[in-house]
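The pair is quoted verbatim as follows:
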Amino acid sequence: MQISEMIANPNKFDESILCRKIMEEEFGVIIFNLPLVRERITVKAKHNEFTMPTTVDGNGHQVIKACADPEIFAINYPQSFTATMNGKELMGMCLKITGVEGLLICSATAFVSYPIYNDKIRELLFEENIEKIATFLSNCTK
């Protein structure tokens, strides 16, 4: 199931399932000052080397725009993003960048979006860490 379809039909899906999927998937994002290359590369940034523009969502929050299902987004809206990023890493970026209040997940197939604000991001990342700790501890006792 694609994220674009899930956010276009929010009443059909449980929010926790959608948020988990968002953490696992890749998103198109705009990042300035990236090297110009044709092939897919991994770039590690130094402090303040790259910047991510923000936008204001319909609720007045300063957010990072993330393009769901980037392979489809690129076809429907060419040149909409300059890089892809894992959802969990993108959530972490929201918590690190001063003034950013969350993510705005934009559908690749419809003019709809789904906001995830920093309080929810903290909750999701915390829950994931608790699950990892529980798994580690259960493995230690075997």
